[in-house]
Amino acid sequence: MCKLTRRKFLGLGGTVLAATSVAGVAPFAIGGARKTVVVVGGGIGGATAAKYLRMMDPSIDVTLIEANTNYYTCFMSNEVLAGERSMESIRFGYSGLKGHGIHVVQDRATSIDPDKRVVRTQGGQRFAYDRCIVSPGVDFRWDSIEGYDARVAERIPHAWKAGPQTLILRNQLRAMRDGGTVLIAPPANPYRCPPAPYDRVSQIAHYLKRHKPRSKIIILDPKDRFSKFDLFLDGWKRYYGYGTDDSMITWVSGAAGGTIESLDVKAMTIQADIESFKGDVINIIPPQKAGWIAFSAGLTNEQGWCPVDFRTFESTIQRKIHVIGDSSQASPMPKGGYVANTTAKVCAAAIVADFNGGKAPRPSWINSCYSTLAPGDAISAVTIYTYRDGRIVKVEGSGGLTPQEFDAGMRAREAQYAHSWFNNITADVFD
Ligand SMILES: Cc1cc2nc3c(=O)[nH]c(=O)nc-3n(C[C@H](O)[C@H](O)[C@H](O)COP(=O)(O)OP(=O)(O)OC[C@H]3O[C@@H](n4cnc5c(N)ncnc54)[C@H](O)[C@@H]3O)c2cc1C
């Protein structure tokens, strides 16, 4: 367990201060009633916020309400699909957070009353709060693809929330005959982790090349470009014959008729804009929206996401409730785990400042995102953002993208960095 002293907190140059500037803030409670924060959702955003609240101010009473006993990270779940890592390696429990003095409640939050400031759960529990932090991740717009819903997803997995869904897709890939076709249908923007569908294509292609080399992947995409586009295409050319008659991967863009309309589970076909495609394994990643509880608490706008004040991540619709992670609308930052992690720290620092009569620090955020083309060949994009005039803006000249020219040594290092990023962020969130 890691408890920060006031001196250590103010002296931190690394993780916390990378995300939040705390100048002028006395972060520890100076007497007064004990403050209570209830966090809904123990994924990347919620778990980080709960831990950092306690680290920044151990006098705060923090309750974390999480529906599941264990959390499976979406990051690296594509490696599970490729048979490159185990499910156990992406599973995290909550004992580390309990060690920080957080009350971890395994239950589903069913309502948040912004007037009475109370969260209620399926198990009949009731938690009063001074501040509530909501980080429920994403839910799916089931009505957008005819024939696809939560029940059908048990057979045609989305695997866009890791756990049982990851296993369904992995087992289907294992059971598929050599020479079979995998259909992958990513959504239009915005959605959770923009490069991840294409990382998934690469990982599955790698698996098929090794185990079922006569198989094909067809991507049915409503978009005409995607994150790290040129780097992915270059990797697919090098490893999977992309662009040749014998390519393992075919990408059907929006302009070429890639937008999907309906699914026929019995026939295992997807009807897209222009033609119909038959698959042996089908992975539909449906369009997304904020997690259900955000809707029921009245935190969402017409686009289905939660508008927030970027300095504090407090909802601009309901006071004293903060929304972080994928459910929040924090454009131009993408919906991603690293963003959820850094927004959680910004939010925690703002709440601690407020409880102690201070002003929310001026925030900045980091996003770095790795994708794999084949084992030992990874690419990355890094961006630093800052707060200016009520908006989130990219810091000019910051960050960068892996160079287009292939350099085997650099790509191997990127692959190592990707795995150490995973180890670091999961320790930062759950230990
Ligand atoms: C295949 C894939 C690969 C990815 N790779 C990367 C990557 O390499 N890097 C990166 O930065 N990001 C990556 N991401 C994105 C990242 O996983 C998400 O952006 C991140 O998990 C968002 O955090 P969150 O807290 O908003 O939601 P989540 O981490 O999904 O957490 C939400 C939690 O809330 C709980 N919950 C929901 N509703 C309730 C309720 N009513 N009551 C109680 N609990 C509730 C859920 O059980 C869940 O545990 C990837 C995503 C996918 C799908």
Automatic annotation (TrEMBL):
SUPFAM superfamilies to which the protein is assigned, alphabetical: FAD/NAD(P)-binding domain (SSF51905), FAD/NAD-linked reductases, dimerisation (C-terminal) domain (SSF55424)
Sulfide dehydrogenase [flavocytochrome c] flavoprotein chain central domain sequence ranges: 166-286
Domain of life: Bacteria
Span of the signal peptide: 1-18
Positions of the FAD/NAD(P)-binding domain: 36-148
A single GO molecular function term of this UniProt record: oxidoreductase activity
Stored InterPro entries: FAD/NAD-bd_sf (IPR036188), FAD/NAD-binding_dom (IPR023753), FAD/NAD-linked_Rdtase_dimer_sf (IPR016156), FCSD_central (IPR049386), FlavoCytC_S_DH_flav-bd (IPR015323), FlavoCytC_S_DH_flav-bd_sf (IPR037092), SQRD (IPR052541), TAT_signal (IPR006311)
Entry keywords, A to Z: FAD, Flavoprotein, Signal
PROSITE patterns: TAT
Pfam family, one: FCSD-flav_bind
UniProt domain Flavocytochrome c sulphide dehydrogenase flavin-binding: residue ranges: 361-430
Stated name of the protein: Flavocytochrome c sulphide dehydrogenase flavoprotein subunit
Organism: Thiolapillus brandeum
